[in-house]
Structures are given as structure tokens and as C-alpha cells.
Amino acid sequence: MSEKKGNNKPVDLRKMIDSICKKVIEYNPKADIDLLMQAYEFGKKAHEGQLRKSGEQYFTHALVVADVLSDLKLDTDTLIAALLHDVVEDTPIELDEIRDLYGEDVALMVDGVTKISDIRSHNPETRKAENYRKLVLSIAKDPRTVLIKLADRLHNMRTVEYLATERQLSMANETKDVYAPLAHRFGLSKIKWELEDMCFKVLYPDQYFEVESNISQTRSDRENQIEEISTPLMDALEKAGVKAEIEGRPKHFWSIFNKMNNQQIGIDKIYDLLALRILVGSKVDCYHALGIVHSLFTPLPDRIKDFVASPKVNMYQSLHTTIRTPRGRNVEIQIRTHEMHERSEIGIASHWRYKEGDQKNAIDFGNMVNWLRQLMEWQEDIADPREFMESMKIDLFQDDVFVFSPRGDIFELPKGATPLDFAFEVHSEVGMKCVGAKINGRIVSLGTELKSRDTVEILTSRNASPSTSWLGIVKTSRAKHHVRRWIRSTQMDQSVKLGHDILERASRKANIPFSKDTEFIDVAQELGYTGLDMMFAAVGRGDLTAQRVLNKLHPPEKKKREKLADMGKDLYAKVMRRRVKGVRVQGMDSMMIRYARCCQPVPGDQIVGVITRGRGVSVHRTGCQNLEGPTIDDDRLIEVCWDVAEEQTFMVKIIVTAEDRKGLLADVTNAISQKGNNIHGGDFVSAKDGTAKVSFLVEVRNLNNLEKLIKAVERVSSVDKVDRFQLT
Ligand code: MN
Fold first, then answer.
1. What CATH number labels 368-490?
2. Nearest residue to 595 via CA among 631, 642, 645
3. How far is CA 722 from CA 650, 669, 694, in A?
4. Which residues have a Cβ under 8 Å from the Cβ of 393 and sit 6 or more positions away?
5. 493: closest CA among 457, 533, 440, 459?
6. Is 263 helix (H, G, I), strand (E, B) or coil?
7. How confident is the model at residue 289, as a pLDDT?
8. Cβ proximity of 49 and 3 under 8 Å
9. Measured between alpha carbons, how far is 350 from 352 in angstroms, rounded to an integer?
10. Pick from 395, 417, 406: nearest CA to 440
11. Which of 18, 26, 289, 479 has a CA-to-CA distance to 644 between 20 and 30 Å?
């Protein structure tokens, strides 16, 4: 196979652990080196005889992982957990033993990175999602788990070439989709970049080498240009008394490739290949330096970003500006303090970094961890593990837009986010009460995609509530979660109410006294429901028939004849009975739905649902005159929306008013047929004073189709007007 397999040079494990210990003592003289060495011996023994695909001893992997983490200057517990992270998964050693020897913290971290191995599901996708779920839960409990998992993935990607091509591709894809975004989310940008570039190399080798060679060929030219800016800049900073370091900033390949792809441009057109970074001593110096940069070079007005005052969710802080050089090139400049810089590279790891005097970092990492805790809380509502994966991925993907509130607060949202997502980001109540939105002062629809720098204002109303259709609009898992929960709870309320009504009516019809007393409670229990409401809800949703409940209560003796009598009464009802699947009622697909005969809605019509006593929901046109009557209470109205298949058809009665003449019926019938619509019947309604009213029951697909048909009939000679039927 590959010649790389020949690399069987024995690795000196002892040398590796010594180098780690040396580093640890340097940054933390009080560290428990004995315990670290003990964990080393333990892990070495456990993995004895196992080999990596590269031919190396397996334990080198654990040592590299610990080594990466020692570069981040992490505490001994994390390093011990790193040394032992594969012991439980790949050797007979049990977690309890690790807990006894090294404590709860270490055990928790090791458990967090250990995959669930007992096969609870045969579906590999489900199993994978379950493992992510477990990992996320562990990270929420102890975020150091993510550091180990990322270092683990880093080494696995560095040695990915030893795997079969198919495994290489799947590991690179998983890394790109889950682990690199995870690194980003926790502010570990250095690891993120390395992971992404390694994925790039595996997934798009040709493009990778193209970018790589181009970058190295143009390096000296770039360095010259940087020199032309940094020299006068350094002078000016010095004169102003700002202590600063300037460095050229290498762009990583994956981001260059992405820019080329997104903007459909060649590598020569990517202006921020030229980039530099100014590191200063204090926050004030950041702004001072920014002023100096702008006094020397012309800034591009729309590219100034202040992440110092408003840090990103992952705690990234920096000032960004892009200037134009005298040679007409654009250069992106980042300005931040040394501390901000360190944090920008290692993110959440800086929280566990050993610090002299053991001062914990002043920055609050609550945001990063809170997000995970929330995700865990939400996921309890999510039954399908793939749905959990989806919502995690959405949140991880930080292809972000930055928008502002009217007060100037900056909000970070995933690309494709809408004003509704923004509303929920501001506060869940703002989202729940949202009725409209303005972007940059102009009213927009709630589904409008936000762009960076938009100022978003949310209009709310105290009486407003979410709509089912919002699920199709919102992008963030936070917003999705709130909308889903709302739908579920209102659905529940309505199903209970509806089920109650249906049962009440059915009881009355069967001459059974209806009360919520023990008899019904017994039936609910017998049918396996945890309470009366749950049984009502099942009836309301259509999962359980009223008849079944009544049969339990009073086993049937005589047969029902009324039911048959009901059927076949009316042509319209007969045709429509088979077509109940055309609307969604607050997401309740299985509810009993009928189309109101009085106004005969078709897709495209504005519609509203009316909860009818005992007969489910009837769907009316919003303009239907019967809705205005006193018989319909407001609380029986519910929101419904169309959800029909293309090929589905609807019955509508139209009334044609015309000057009576010979052949009129035939001509109208002909006009309708020519439009391709079926006619299910025609009738003279009235004929007096030479004016005829004729009704036709026609089959149409939607409003557009119906309107075209009406136009066609109106063109028939002597036809005066065509109306849709409305029963009053
Ligand atoms: Mn591992």
C-alpha cells in the first residue's frame, strides 16, 4: 500500500511524557507531576501491544493529545484525562477504576469522549447522533471535555493519511461539519484553522495545492506591501506613545478557498490576503491605535467593526478595519491587546489555564457554556436525534451575520436568519409577541433574510402569538424551540377542548350522560392515558374515536344506522369527504377537517378554521358571511394554512348570471371544459325577465385556476357576471 506505512521507527514514549512534564512544571511549578506520571504508566500499560494505523504504538496518540493540551497550559486533571481518554473505549479498563484513581473530574471527562458502544440502534445515523448528544452533555457539565475531544480530533486528522480513502473522506467531512465549528464556538481559532486546512486538503486536494502554491509564490510581494504600511505605522504609533507590535497575518487556506468560491473570483482578487495585526497593551490603546491607522490611511467606511465593545459570542474581541494603501490595495487590520489575542486563539481554554496566583480569567465564559446548557434543555423536547443534530449544526455554523438593535447593540446570528430569529435572540417574549419588523427603518416581511449591518427593529403587540408558519421562517434553534413549544402547548389545549366537545356530543347522541366523573376517568386509564385530558386530547387529535370511548363505557348492543344515513346526502360533501388532508390546523394534521359548504374555499383563498361542536374544524374563507354571525365566538376561530399537493382538486360552485338564450348552458359548459376543468353538475337557479342564473359545480386546483375559469366563462356571449357561491 502506501509507502508511509513503513514508518515503524519506535517512538520514545518516555521522551514524550518528559517533554510534557517539563512544560507543565514551567507554567505550573506546583503541579502534581507524580500523579501525571502515574497516569502515564497506567495508560501505557492499558494500551500495551495496540498499534495505530500508522504503525506507531497506540499510546503515542494519547501522548500527542496531552501534548497539545499542555501547549494550552492546561491543568493536570485535563492532561490526565487526555492520557487516559481512549482507555475505557479501547481497553478492558472500566470507568470506575479511573474514578477511584484520579477522581470524579477526570472520570467525567474520559466518559465524555468515550463513545456509546452498546448498540441501541441499528441505524448508524441515530447512533452517531446519540454520541454527539452524549458529548454535548459532557461538555455542558465540564467544558474541558471539548478541549480533549478537539485535541484528539486534531491528532486523528494529522494522521488521517493512514486511513483508507473512504474513512479519510468521512472523517474530514465530520470534522468540517462538527468539530471545526465546535472549536470556533469555543473560541479555539488556532485549532479550528488547523482542522479546516487539513479537511480542505483531504476533501479538495487539487484546489488545496493550487491555493498553497499561489500563496507561497506571492509571499515576498505580499511581505513588501505589508512593509510599506507597517513602517510608517510603527513610527506614528511610537511617536504617539503607543507601545505596539505589528505582525503580518497569515490567512488560512480554507478561508481563502471559501472566499474564492463564494464570490466567484480568482485568488488574485482576494484583497484581504493582505492583512496585519496590531497588538497593544490596553483597551484604550486599541482605540488610540485605530485613530492613528485612520489618520495615515483611508479606511473603507463600511468595514469598521468593534468587537472590543461588543465581543462575539465566543468571546472574540478585536477592532477590525480595512484601509486602502497608496498603491490602491485593501488591507485588513485587526487591533487588540495581547490578552485579547491570546483569548482569540485559545478561547475557552484560557479559563483553565494555569495562572500565577491562580486568578481565574476575568472574562465571563458563561455565554459559551450557557448555550450548551440551553441546547441540552431543549433537546429534552426533541425526540428525534437527527433533529437534535440539525439544531446543533445550525447553532455551530457560524457563517454569521451581524446586525444591530435600534439602540446599537450588536447581535450575531447565523446566515439566513430572519427578523424573527433576531426577535427571539433579543428576548423570547419579544419573539412570542412579534407582529412585524423594520430593517433600516423600512417595514419588511418576517421572513426577510438579514444582512450584516442591518439595523433591526421588532414590532410587538401584547395580544400577539406565534404562528405555525413561523417554523418555516426561523433559523436558530432558540427560536425554533420556542415556536415548537408554543405550538405543542396550544395544540394540546385545543385538542383537549375539541376532544371534550366531540365526546360530549357523541355521548348525548348515544344517550349516555356526559360528565367528567369517575367512569370516564376509568375509561381513560383503561385505554392507557395518564388522565382525562390526555384522552380528550387524543380524541381531539383524531388518534382515538369517540365511539371507542363510548364502547368502553357501554359495550354496544345495537348497530348504528344513523351513520350510513348521514352519508351521500350532498354531492359536495361526498366529494370532499375524501379530501380532508388539504390544510394544516396549527400543525395538527390528523384533526377532523371539513371545508365549509357555505363558502367553499380553494387553495389560495385566505382561510380561517372554526372549531365546531363535535365535528372537528371547518375551514371557511375569511370573507365568509357566516363568520360574522353571532353564533361564532372568537375563541372558536383558529389559524389554519393551506398545505395541498399540486394534483389535489377542490369543488366550487359558481353562479353564472346571463341574458337567457338558447345554447347558453352548452356554451358555458364548453368554456369550462376547454379550461380543462371537470364539471360535476349544472342547474338553473332562476330565470325571470329574460335573465338566467345558472349554477355549476366545478372542480378546480386553486384560486388562480378558478379565477382563470371565471374569466373564461365571463367571455361567453350574453354572460353578465360570474360569482362564487356564498350561502347566506
Ligand atoms: Mn483518541
1. 3.10.20.30
2. 642
3. 18, 13, 10
4. 177, 178, 181
5. 533
6. helix
7. 94
8. no
9. 5
10. 406
11. 479
Q: Which residues are in the CB-under-5-Å shell of ion ligand 1?
A: 86, 152
Is the separation of the CB atoms in 638 and 593 below 8 Å?
no
The neighbour count for residue 656, using CB atoms within 10 Å, is 25
Q: Given this model, what pLDDT does residue 678 score?
A: 84
Task: Enter the C-alpha cell of residue 338.
Answer: 495581547
Q: What is the pLDDT of residue 333?
A: 92
The Å distance, Cα 58 to ligand 1 centre, comes to 9
Q: How far apart are the first and last CA of the chain?
A: 83
Calpha distance 582→330 (Å, rounded)? 56
What is the residue whose three cell numbers read 379530501? 579
The pLDDT score that the predictor gives to residue 458 is 94
Buried b / exposed e across 184-215, counting CB within 10 Å, b at 16+? bbbbbbbbbbbbbbbbbbbbbeebbeebeebb
| Count helices and strands in the chain by DSSP H and E runs | 28, 21
Eight-class DSSP state of 175:
I
Q: Please tell me the distance between residue 156's alpha carbon and the centre of ligand 1 in angstroms.
A: 7
Query: CA of 701: how far to CAs of 641, 650, 651, 654, 671, in Å?
Result: 16, 6, 9, 15, 17
Structure confidence at residue 585 (pLDDT): 59
Question: Which sign, positive or negative, has the C-alpha torsion 151, 157, 162, 166?
Answer: positive
Show which residues are catalytic.
Answer: 89-90
Report pLDDT for 154.
Answer: 96
Among residues 73, 49, 221, 78, the alpha carbon closest in space to that of 148 is found at 78
Pick the CATH number of 13-203 from 1.10.3210.10, 1.10.940.10, 3.30.420.10, 2.40.30.260: 1.10.3210.10
CA torsion angle for 602, 603, 608, 612 (degrees, to 10)?
Answer: 50
Instruction: For residue 174, give Cα distances in angstroms to 85, 131, 189, 190.
Output: 20, 13, 18, 18
pLDDT value of residue 23 = 94
d(CA 293, CA 278): 10
Cβ distance 112 to 135 under 8 Å?
yes
Question: For the chain, what are the domain ranges?
Answer: 13-203, 213-361, 368-490, 492-553, 557-643, 650-724
Where would I find the beta strands (DSSP E) of 447-587? 456-460, 583-585
Which residue in 359, 304, 356, 299 sits closest to 330, CA to CA? 299
Per-run averaged pLDDT (10 residues), the chain, 728 residues:
45 90 91 94 92 89 95 92 93 92 93 74 70 79 89 95 91 89 85 94 92 83 84 93 87 83 73 81 93 91 82 83 84 91 83 56 53 61 58 58 79 86 92 92 90 87 84 84 83 81 81 73 82 83 78 60 38 39 54 77 85 71 77 68 76 89 84 84 76 87 91 91 85
Topology adopted by domain 650-724: Alpha-Beta Plaits (3.30.70)
For residue 443, what is the enclosing H or E element? strand 442-444
Give distance in angstroms: CA of 22 to centre of ligand 1: 23
What pLDDT score was predicted for residue 202? 95
In angstroms, the CA 172 to CA 511 distance is 68
Contact 690, 634 (CB under 8 A): no
Distance between Cα 150 and ligand 1 center (Å): 10
Q: How many A from CA of 83 to the centre of ligand 1?
A: 9
* Residue-wise DSSP of 674-693: HTT--EEEEEEEEEETTEEE
> Which CATH superfamily hosts domain 213-361?
Beta Polymerase, domain 2 (3.30.460.10)
* φ, ψ at 320 (rounded to 5°): -120, 140
Q: What is the pLDDT of residue 330?
A: 82
Per-residue confidence (pLDDT) for residue 475, from 0 to 100? 84
**Domain 213-361 in the same topology as domain 13-203:** no
pTM score, whole prediction: 0.57
DSSP code at position 618: E
